[in-house]
Design goal:
With 129 residues, this protein is of the alpha/beta class. It has a single domain (5-127), classed as 2,3-Dihydroxybiphenyl 1,2-Dioxygenase, domain 1 (Roll). Helices cover 23% and strands 40% of the residues. The chain is built from three helices and eight strands. It has helices at residues 14-25, 52-59, 84-93; strands at residues 5-11, 31-33, 36-42, 45-51, 76-80, 97-104, 109-115, 121-127. The strands form two sheets. The chain has a four-stranded mixed beta sheet. A hairpin with a 5-residue loop joins strand 7 and strand 8 (121-127). Helix 1 runs antiparallel to helix 3. The chain starts with a strand and ends with a strand. The model has no long low-confidence stretch (mean pLDDT 93).
Length: 129
Amino acid sequence: MIAKTHLILYVQDQTRSAEFYSRVFGCAPTLNVPGMTEFPLSESCVLGLMPEAGIKRLLGDLLPDPARGNGIPRAEIYLRVTDPLAYHRRALEAGAAELSPLADRDWGDRVAYSLDPDGHVLAFAEKSA
């Protein structure tokens, strides 16, 4: 059994990304030290932010350099929240680029999409009424 899940995004600038996600989530990180910032997404899931250079140092030359993928969407964070429009607006105000406004999707969710400063796709969703 998995006790806790850590989803870690590789970011170009840890401070910038930590400030961005603090604004989006409306809370301070639970961990913010050189090399890692963490935000709780639920009791059993944490979003981590690790500098690209840090993961490269940690895993060495066999790991392709994550910095080569800057600007290319490499991950999507799909979050079901109670007010997706509010989260989406906070993301845009914090510097995200809008990909799609809040809309009903054919899988039964209402979802808004944006890109964070590192090009990761953010989706804020709720079940359609």
